[in-house]
Amino acid sequence: MACYNLKNYLPMTRKVGGQSLPDQPKPESEIRAVLGVLHDIAPDILGVVEIGDEKALADFQTRLAAVGLDYPHAEWIQGADEVRRIALLSRFPITARHSRSRVPVELNGRFFEMCRGILDVTVQVTPVSTLRLVGLHLKSQRDVPEYDEAKFRARESIAVRAHLDAIMKETPDLDLLVFGDLNDSKNAFAVREILGPLKSPMALRDLRLKDQWGLTWTHHWAEADIYSRLDYLLVSHSLWRKVNLTRSGIHFSPEWSQASDHRAIYTQISFPE
Question: What are the structural domains of the chain?
Fold first, then answer.
């Protein structure tokens, strides 16, 4: 399984020939670099954020298939953000869909909705095994006039934890994986809230992924030259026992910065046949 922030795989205003032009797709050179990264990893299940509309997702699937990565099963959701969405692509059938596009968030007495909602599906990974996957993309660290961005992520995380609690109360020994761009550091309230109380049976475990040099950053903010870990794979206690940590990590490619401002993360999980 892999998770990747695609960095605006969607039409938007971009500089072309020195001019800012509206409705420009992600450049072909960037798309080729994205495909190269994913071809290297070749995941059976792929979670992505910063994908555009369903047309953009279909284009992405077609391009992936052209490099040998065929994902016939997909889930795509749109939250309050009408530009950037979350999607999941899978070689295996999706047997249940519980995604929530409209998730209410209260902050300072005002009501909003989660920026990108909560993607939630169950995948049949073997004839006898299923995997529940929850995909997230919390509010970015960019300032907005409506609210404090860190406080909003904190409120989003409370909504996410309530969603996860409901799942795990129903099935305590569930194989559950939470993936996504949480836009915060591991000690921030939002990340700790989603992980849950340390000794609780419903707590998640952070895979604490590293690259081949032992580095943990997944995002580079070029303007400030800051490297951060914003992307996570979190697993339930039951799933933790099936994770192969030696085959999990942060992917490095010489073209990583051409593809995105994030690096892809991945894990290998072994299920009974």
Answer: 2-269 (3.60.10.10)
